[in-house]
Design brief:
Keywords: Heme, Iron, Metal-binding, Signal. The chain is mostly helical. It has one domain: Orthogonal Bundle (Cytochrome Bc1 Complex, Chain D, domain 2). It has 7 helices and 2 strands; from the N terminus they run H-H-H-H-E-E-H-H-H. Helix 1 crosses helix 5. The radius of gyration is 18 Å and the shape is globular. 30% of the residues are buried.
């Protein structure tokens, strides 16, 4: 009986640590977002019409495919500039590269942003590392965005 009770307790603690770990990742992502992204994309990822697109309700949809996850990782590593369509609106802007931040922080912020849409997706430090290993210039980023949009329309 004691052995069974200890096994159940150990299993419960392991489950809690997994849940706590993902909750902590979301918290870390929220902090990274608040410090680095909210100035432009605003608190809660609601964006600023005509200047900075909303991220809430969009990032989870983009991250739903492997190509979308790769694109998001490329954006935070390489930045993005030029005209884009997002959420039915046009934007001509500049998103700087955040390649100076650690892979874990960038993965945490992207994973956090997916939670704002209600369908959490996991973006890993390995996803960021893959993007970091293949830097892209502005035209390459726009070509990647256009290809992704043709295959899986970007909201």
């Amino acid at each position: 009986m004691l052995k069974t009770g200890l096994s159940l307790l150990a299993g419960g603690l392991m489950a809690c640590s997994v849940l706590t770990g993902s909750a902590l990742a979301a918290s870390d992502g929220a902090a990274v977002y608040s410090t680095n992204c909210s100035v432009c994309h605003q608190a809660g990822g609601v964006g600023m019409p005509g200047q900075f697109p909303a991220l809430k309700g969009r990032i989870d949809k983009i991250a739903a495919t492997p190509e979308g996850k790769a694109y998001l990782a490329d954006v935070v590593i390489n930045g993005l500039h030029g005209p884009i369509q997002a959420g039915g609106a046009s934007y001509v802007g500049f998103m700087p590269s955040f390649k100076g931040l650690p892979d874990d922080d960038l993965a945490a912020v992207l994973s956090y942003l997916t939670t704002l849409g209600g369908t959490a997706q996991t973006i890993t430090a390995d996803d960021i590392k893959a993007a970091r290993s293949k830097p892209k210039k502005g035209a390459e980023m726009m070509a990647e965005r256009n290809a992704l949009n043709a295959a899986h329309p970007i909201p």
